[in-house]
């Protein structure tokens, strides 16, 4: 790949004294609470590496200048990572830039201009896209998880022992996650009280979900499925009943389990409580559920918690559901580019292909 010359960014405007003033510890904690857990972890790791590089190269990390960010992006595209032997992917560099800006926002400081850094990134993408190396071209694309459509879900839940509490929890996580198009953070945030039965007409359940990306509460209605083994309503109610039998009638819907499949006790470190005191699952643990089930079912592909959300879109679109209805049920903003990207990826060989019937 030919050398990419970093582009010099525009001159920096120094932050005002008011912008430099740090937030209080409480305000910092409140800002942090507004960032999804998985995003926060990724951003924190990226920012730690940025500050370490700044220390080595005698740059200032906070506030960072546009030139510093541009130099760092140039460094990333030329430096192989120890784990992979390749430089950062374009998608990872996008996240790095976001982490630097997020750290500045959290500190109450104006983030640096990133036009120069993004020009370097654009050049990097262009170089990868025209490379003769297949690995380079794959590196240019963000890795996409496989879609957990109903046929796949049947294989995944078949690996679970649904007589146990853990099996009931994992089945509900998989099936309800698909039915509400839930992100991992949205699923683990659910409480038992978030689920309401349609007791009058017995049509299913309503789930109160906070969609962080659009900053809104939604109430998707989940109807009984035609196949009892993959019915999200039956799976969710079975979990709630099993939790009640264990004396858990309030608090998190999805809780941590020990290796014996029992509700795990509170975690401590050096005598101090750590983690969620109510035993709420982490987003990593939720993602582990689908990865483990896919491994056990010997289903090839990249399976993460987001496979459930993408699988919902794929299945609903294949069934001819309206795009607006799909988006509103799953918590996408009207006209969401992310939702349209799912449709473009999944419909390429279907009846929606624009080449069908044009006379070629």
Secondary structure layout:
Layout: H1 17-20, H2 25-33, H3 37-56, H4 66-78, H5 90-106, H6 115-129, H7 134-140, H8 150-157, H9 165-179, H10 184-188, E1 195-197, E2 204-207, E3 209-211, E4 216-218, E5 221-223, H11 232-245, E6 267-269, E7 272-274, H12 283-296, H13 306-318, H14 323-330, H15 337-346
Antiparallel strand pairs: 1-2, 2-5, 3-4, 6-7
Summarize the structure.
With 360 residues, the chain is mainly alpha-helical. The chain contains 15 helices and 7 strands.
What do these coordinates show?
- The structure is a single chain.
- The protein is mainly α and 360 residues long.
- Helices cover 48% and strands 6% of the residues.
- It has helices at 17-20, 25-33, 37-56, 66-78, 90-106, 115-129, 134-140, 150-157, 165-179, 184-188, 232-245, 283-296, 306-318, 323-330, 337-346; strands at 195-197, 204-207, 209-211, 216-218, 221-223, 267-269, 272-274.
- The longest helix is centred in the N-terminal third of the chain and has 20 residues, at 37-56.
- The model is unreliable at 1-21 (pLDDT under 50).
């Amino acid at each position: 790949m030919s050398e990419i010359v970093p582009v010099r960014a525009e001159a920096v405007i120094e932050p005002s004294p008011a912008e430099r003033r740090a937030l209080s510890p409480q305000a910092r904690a409140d800002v942090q609470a507004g960032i999804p857990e998985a995003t926060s972890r990724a951003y924190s790791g990226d920012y730690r590496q940025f500050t370490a590089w700044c220390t080595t190269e005698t740059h200032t990390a906070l506030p960072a200048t546009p030139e510093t960010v541009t130099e760092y992006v140039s460094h990333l595209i030329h430096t192989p990572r120890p784990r992979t032997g390749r430089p950062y992917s374009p998608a990872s560099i996008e996240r790095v830039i976001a982490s630097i800006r997020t750290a500045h926002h959290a500190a109450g400081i104006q983030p640096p201009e990133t036009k120069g850094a993004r020009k370097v990134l654009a050049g990097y993408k262009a170089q990868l896209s025209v490379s003769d190396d297949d690995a380079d071209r794959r590196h240019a694309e963000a890795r996409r998880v496989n879609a957990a459509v109903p046929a796949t879900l049947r294989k995944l839940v078949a690996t679970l022992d649904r007589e146990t509490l853990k099996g009931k929890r994992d089945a509900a996580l998989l099936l309800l996650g698909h039915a509400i198009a839930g992100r991992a953070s949205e699923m683990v945030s659910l409480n038992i009280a978030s689920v309401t039965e349609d007791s009058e007409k017995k049509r299913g359940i309503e789930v109160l979900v906070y969609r962080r990306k659009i900053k809104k509460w939604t109430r998707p209605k989940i109807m009984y499925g035609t196949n009892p083994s993959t019915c999200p309503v039956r799976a969710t109610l079975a979990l709630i009943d099993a939790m009640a039998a264990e004396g858990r009638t309030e608090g998190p819907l999805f809780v941590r389990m020990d290796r014996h499949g029992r509700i795990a006790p509170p975690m401590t470190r050096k005598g101090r409580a750590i983690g969620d005191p109510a035993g709420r699952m982490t987003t990593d643990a939720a993602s582990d559920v689908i990865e483990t089930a896919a491994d056990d079912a010997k289903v090839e592909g990249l399976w993460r918690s987001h496979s459930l959300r993408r699988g919902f879109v794929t299945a609903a679109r294949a069934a001819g559901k309206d795009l607006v209805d799909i988006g509103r049920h799953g918590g996408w903003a009207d006209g969401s580019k992310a939702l349209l990207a799912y449709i473009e990826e999944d419909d390429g060989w279907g009846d929606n292909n624009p080449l069908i019937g044009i006379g070629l």
